[in-house]
Amino acid sequence: MATFELLKTTEHSIRLGRMTILRNHERKILNTPNCLACTARGSVPHLTPDSLREIPVEALEITLEQFLDVQPPPSSLFPNGAHKFFNLEEYLLFFDVRDPGELKKIPFNTDKFASVITSQGIRKITPDDYVKYVNSYNPEMFASLSDTITAESPSPKRIKKSVNRTLTWLDHALANIKEGIHVFGAVVGHDNHEERVRSAQETANRKVAGFVLNGHDLGNTSKERLDILKTSINHLPKDKIRIAYGIEKPADILRGILEGIDVFDASYPSKMTSAGKAFVFSLNNDKWDTDTGCSQHINLLEGQYRTDYQPFIQTCKCYACRNHTRAYVHHLLNAREMLANVLLMSHNLYHYSQFFKKIRESMEQDTFLQFAEQFLQRYGEEEYKNDHEVTLENAEFSINQNKTEHNSSF
């Protein structure tokens, strides 16, 4: 059984919530707003399961296309499911067929199969096989198969077909998924207003646990992506959880929360790690680190860090900041030692998780809009102020009168 509770809401779409899943007498919680930690072949990049346990993440996303170079995937044949196979038993697992952090160009889909990109080239996956593999992996949650469009200028006919095909595949998943695995409906429609509304409304009419909105390839800026996604969000029920892909930078996340998004993909920490960068953006607007100014990250490959003997962030409690210096990580990067990425990833994912924790705390204290306004002013996101009027008056949260929360059971 899964429930999603809205603990606090405002007329400006800000949502503080909690998803609870009870399965096999085990209770797991995803507090929202939050993120899904990204994985590569079932492992958070650069981190062992023991290293991951030092980071306060609650849910992980598993990308199935990374296993489909061989079908059926050998890991799907393991009799005790994905949690045990990947040594991730304490986490909520969310499966999707495609990588939420990167939308690869897809050659074509048909009514009978979707095309995916694997390490061995293009593979086809049918709705039957997808549900069969998910049933075998046995995660708590998964996204229904979607007919994702990656063409630059699809015709209205192609977009309509995408919506119809995605709804058909959703119905198939709902009819064949085993009990205890919760289906999230994929909301599509590309940039077509009418089809995005139809997709949202039709998906909301199904017995889904929540919704997945993919912002990749929609518009040239995060604002354009959010404006397109908002068309769908406005037609989704308030009492079910919304997950969005392609909205990943801290400033964009704050804007996404203002549009009513609950959960974001956490591919950004991995991307910054691969670039040799460490997050240094402040979580306390009244306490600025004078050495980083208005920078959200620092590039440890740069020579200026050769003799910088302080941690990434003085107040950070991650493993890397407690034990190592910027100079040491700079040395490791230049020596091309794998430990550099281990330390960077442990810090970046930890700090990213703390960012969401800070957001939830500010909502609990009725100060989220002040926090968002100050954060975006500091980091140069002036367009935010033009799109949303952030005032102290707007920051007044209204506790829901129906016993202070909405409940929805699936």
TrEMBL record:
InterPro entries: QTRTD1, Queuine_tRNA-ribosyltrfase, TGT-like_sf, tRNA_ribo_trans-like. The keyword Cytoplasm applies. Its cofactor is Zn(2+). GO terms for cellular component: cytoplasm. GO terms for molecular function: metal ion binding; tRNA-guanosine(34) queuine transglycosylase activity. Zn(2+) binds at C316, C318, C321, H347. Residues 15-380 form the tRNA-guanine(15) transglycosylase-like domain. Its main location: cytoplasm. Keywords: Cytoplasm, Metal-binding, tRNA processing, Zinc. Binds 1 zinc ion per subunit. GO terms for biological process: tRNA modification. Pfam families: TGT. It is found in: Cytoplasm. NCBIfam families: tgt_general. PANTHER family: QUEUINE TRNA-RIBOSYLTRANSFERASE ACCESSORY SUBUNIT 2. Belongs to the queuine tRNA-ribosyltransferase family. QTRT2 subfamily. Non-catalytic subunit of the queuine tRNA-ribosyltransferase (TGT) that catalyzes the base-exchange of a guanine (G) residue with queuine (Q) at position 34 (anticodon wobble position) in tRNAs with GU(N) anticodons (tRNA-Asp, -Asn, -His and -Tyr), resulting in the hypermodified nucleoside queuosine (7-(((4,5-cis-dihydroxy-2-cyclopenten-1-yl)amino)methyl)-7-deazaguanosine). This is Queuine tRNA-ribosyltransferase accessory subunit 2. It comes from Acaulospora morrowiae.
